[in-house]
Structures are given as structure tokens and as C-alpha cells.
Amino acid sequence: MSRVADVAVVGAGYVGLVTGASLARVGHRVTCVDKDRERVAGLQQGRMPVYEPGLEELVARGVGAGRLSFTEGFDAAVGGANVVFIAVDTPQGEGGAADLSNVSSVARSIGRALAESTRRARPLVVANKSTVPVGSGDYVSVLIREGADEVGGVHHPEEVRFGVASNPEFLREGSAVYDSLFPDRIVVGAEEAWVVDVMRELYGPVIEQSFPVEMDPRPRVTVPFVVTDLASAEMIKYAANAFLATKVSFINEISDLCELTGADVGSVATGIGLDGRIGPRFLNAGIGWGGSCLPKDVAALRSIAREYQHETRLLDATVAVNDRRRELVVSKLQRDLGTLDGKRVALLGLAFKPNTDDLREAPSLGIAAELCSLGALVVGYDPVAAKAAARRAPDLLVAFDPHEALEGAHAAVVVTEWSEVRNLDLRRVASLMQEPKLLIDGRNAIDPAAAREAGLLYRGFGHD
Known about the structure:
45% of the residues lie in helices and 13% in strands.
């Protein structure tokens, strides 16, 4: 097993917390730093700031083993680390560009901390986990130097020793713990060989799958360790998410054609997904993609292109197709209900995908807003995100039981394919609803024949 490293993770949000807990799980000593005092206090008491299956147990295990801790003390954590991860938020800014203010602040603080601890035995590796535009690795290096220079007179430039790596994350909300411990690949971009060597050693237990795992069904295969320059690593992150978004929009285009021609999009997706060049994942037709990654990363990539006066026609179309999916839900409701004024509509699932409480760019919020504007009474159910949705959408009534949401509804829309939604007793659903008992299956998650047999007027996407 690789040598145990002292790691600081700046940012104890979704990415930072999963990264830190996973590195502690494979044997490293990890300190997660966050400026949010309330978040740090909660984590010290075992309260998670996000909902993610398996994360609470992973954090508790790391804390219990003495390998994972949480602090507001930036300088001490960075000063004692061999590797520092920047894992702060880069929200979408004006024109779709990533807002790097959090990254900038952290980089300068790292520089100041380095300048004040010049007796380091080894140079520091600063690994950027935050999703940043191409070229940000060099930008981070400049900011670290600027931060060091702010200390003034304490150091000689050559004494501030560090190297920057780009180490993008590929975590799927709802399975982030698994993705962190059993990744498809680890990508490291750096300009200096020693930085790559440090990162390879840090990830050694994950690459070799040498850490002990209880009841893990996955075959132990070596994880690919992809080494690139900084710019290529940054582009890999954006390109991966843009491709996935394009794949979803593609199958939704095909879905519309299937409805027009009488073909079944499920059969089509299965048929093309068996082609090894295409693969079956992200070929689920419905109301499109949302969340914190795909919309933001596609927007950022398009923004980067505009800086170079380059047109991204395919990505532009990808976004346009996805935006249209929400409108289709409303159109399908109007087709069978006529006017929506005074009609009760239940939205089943509010988070952008199952097994998360994330409402960023969630289709449910846009659909709810449009329906409310048309006079509908909208009631939303979600097993995890209902309270957060109520804060985000004041016109949306929230229910904490799906049957409560369905009571008296003229129509229901499957927005998020939670198991609690997939496994509803359809006869009971029909008994609770008012005519025409319309079910719009936005995720093609319900068996059409079973729904119709139960007495529901079923409408899916891409099939009869």
C-alpha cells in the first residue's frame, strides 16, 4: 500500500466531503476545512450537510478511526499537509461562465500559508477538484504566488515550493461514495513529473484496489490512471459532461420521432445501446437532464467557446432540446386536461434525480412554475427534497406522502424515478385521483400496461 499522506481538503461540501472521507477510508489522514462554522460544527457532531447514500457511514468510519477531522483552521490544516485539494463551489456566473471567486480566494490563502511555513520537508501539491475552465491550473499557480508575495519579506521565492495538479471529479449524485472508491478512471493533469508521482502514490490504494472492502461485489481490477497536461485534464471534465448531456438530448430527439412514427423508444434505446460504440447508459428518454453538473458544465463550455469566437452548434442544440422537454410535459397535460386552470396536478419526485436532495436545475421547479402560472394547483412529493422545494418554490404545495399528493389530483407527473414512486400501488393511485386520472410518465418508469389496467390514462415519452 502507498505511504500514508497528510491531506487537507478545502471545502466540505458535496465533492470535498466525499473526497476527504474516501481518502481517509483508504488510509490517509485527512482534514476537511470549511469557512462555514455551522457546517463544521455539524460535521464534528456527525450531521451531513448533503444527502448522499453511504456518506454518513463513511464519514463516521473515518472519524472513528482517527483519520478524518473537520476544522475552520485553514493555515494549520494546509501547513501540515502534503497534498491540498481545492474543492469549493464554482457556480455559474454571467453568460454561463464559471465563477472562480471561491477558487481564487483559496489559492491566495494557500500561498500565504506556504509563505509562513517555509520549513516544509517536501513541496506541496495543490490539486484542483473544483470544476474550472481550461487554463485555470496556471491561474491557480499565479494566485498562489500572489498570496505568498502578500506576506512580504518572510520568504525567498524559491522557498515557496509547490506544484499544481488538475484532478477532476466524476461523481454521480446518488452513487458518489461508490464512484470515489471504485472509479472508472482517475485523471491527473500536471506539468511536473514529481506532482504526478505524488498523486499516483496518494491514489495508490484506489488504483490497485488494495484497501479492504466488506461485501464488495466488484471485481478487483486496476483503475486506469490517466496522466495529461493541465489544460487537457480540465477539458476532460467538461467534455465528459457535455457528451452525456448530448446523449440524453439525442435519445429525446429520437423519442419525439418514435411518438410520430409509432416506434417504441425503449426498444430503440435497447437496440442501439447494445452497440459497444454507443452503450446503454444515458439513453433514457423523458423530461431531460438537470442537476448541478450537466447544465453548469455545458454552459461553461459554451462560454469558453465564445471567448474564442467559436460556435458550438451541437451543444447549442443539446441545450435547446433539453429546454423543450419541460414544455412537452405541459403540452401533454393540456392535451388531455384542456385548460389547466383549477386543475390539481401532483408532481411525483422533486429532486433532479433519485437518491439526492439536490434541486439545482431540477425539472420539477420549472414545470411547477409554468403550471402555477396557468392556474393549476400543484402539489409535489419527494421523500428527501420536499422541505427544500417548499423553500425554493413558494407556490408549490408539498406533501411528505405520495398518496397525499395524489388525493383528488386530475393528473400526476412522474418527475423523479424514486423507488417510492416506481413501486406505487397503481390501483390505489387511480382510486385517489379524479377523472381523467392522467399519468404523465416523465421518466418512462411505470409499466404502461399495468397503469392502464389500473384505470389510469397513461402517457409516456417515445411510445404509445
